[in-house]
Design a protein that fits this description.
Length: 301
């Protein structure tokens, strides 16, 4: 891990390693099963899978930033945002990322990048208009802690492997059925979608578990770095409250990128156990409770 002043989180590191191992193992087993079922299609499956994986790893940050409408801005265009990023980078002793703004009234922020030297941090115009400077610092520190801990890259790759399972399935079905004929064809037609669905479901749950923990870790790291957990709590409360006033159609456009956002654009329900299991973020109460504990810890010291 690149050296920086964000607090280490061994729990996050352990969870990232375990998640990547389990999803990687699941992915290998899935590809092996697909190759066994569709023997004639294995060259096409391996080539396409390799190309997609490499492309995702190298271009994921640009793809994500473009998809969310991020446009890089200069210090002259956005002096306040650049000033906040400069201060957080100085505190964290990390390279300054590219700074971008997304023209959206949905108050949110995100960071992309596989390492500290290839990073973009973005805030929406809705966020910049609503937050005070100390609140904005807390949010930017939260996002840059994701980059410092490398969980942005892990989440991107982990999420992609589940999607790739579906892509490979379609390739295998298209290419394999042109070669496979006979009584086993019907069994293959049932087995492949079933295996793909299981792989996607397991990888989905694993990435959701990691996503919720990494948000708590980023809150903690940002609060300790800035020394103002109350400002981050204020920003979190304000953003969550303002999201409720945004038109649903705008929130639905942002919902696919929930895993990257500071706060989820849409939640999956009224806090049931099942909805929490599917959520990309911990509940607001859980995040505020942790920030309250950090405030008390800092006060004691």
């Amino acid at each position: 891990m690149d050296r920086n002043c964000f607090a280490d989180d061994r729990g996050l590191t352990t969870r990232m390693v375990v998640t990547m191992f389990l999803i990687g193992l699941l992915y290998v087993v899935f590809v092996g099963a697909l190759l066994a079922l569709l023997r004639g299609s294995w060259p096409l499956i391996l080539v396409i899978a390799g190309i997609l994986f490499v492309a995702q790893f190298w271009f994921s940050d640009r793809i994500a930033a473009f998809s969310m409408g991020a446009k890089e801005v200069t210090p002259e265009q956005a002096p306040e945002l650049h000033g906040v990023v400069d201060r957080i980078c100085a505190l964290a002793d990390m390279p300054k990322p590219r700074v971008a703004i997304a023209d959206s009234d949905v108050p949110n922020a995100f960071a992309t990048g596989c390492n500290q030297k290839n990073t973009t941090v973005c805030a929406t115009t809705g966020l910049l208009r609503r937050l005070e400077p100390d609140e904005l610092e807390g949010v930017i520190a939260h996002e840059l802690s994701h980059v410092a801990h490398k969980d942005v890259a892990v989440m991107t790759i982990a999420s992609f492997l589940g999607i790739l399972a579906g892509v490979i399935t379609r390739i295998g079905l298209y290419g394999g059925f042109r070669r496979v004929r006979g009584p086993g064809t019907a069994v293959i037609a049932i087995a492949i979608p079933l295996v793909s669905a299981v792989v996607y479901a397991i990888s989905f749950l694993l990435t959701r578990m990691l996503s919720r923990y990494r948000e708590l870790s980023a809150d903690r790291s940002a609060a300790l770095l800035t020394g103002r957990p109350s400002a981050l709590a204020s920003a979190l409360t304000k953003v969550t409250g303002q999201l409720a006033a945004i038109p649903t159609k705008d929130l639905r456009k942002a919902e696919p990128f929930n895993a990257f956002y500071f706060a989820p654009a849409l939640t999956s329900g009224a806090g049931s156990r099942f909805s929490r299991l599917l959520s990309t973020h911990p509940t607001l109460d859980a995040r505020l409770e942790q920030l309250g504990r950090i405030t008390r810890e800092l006060d004691r010291h």
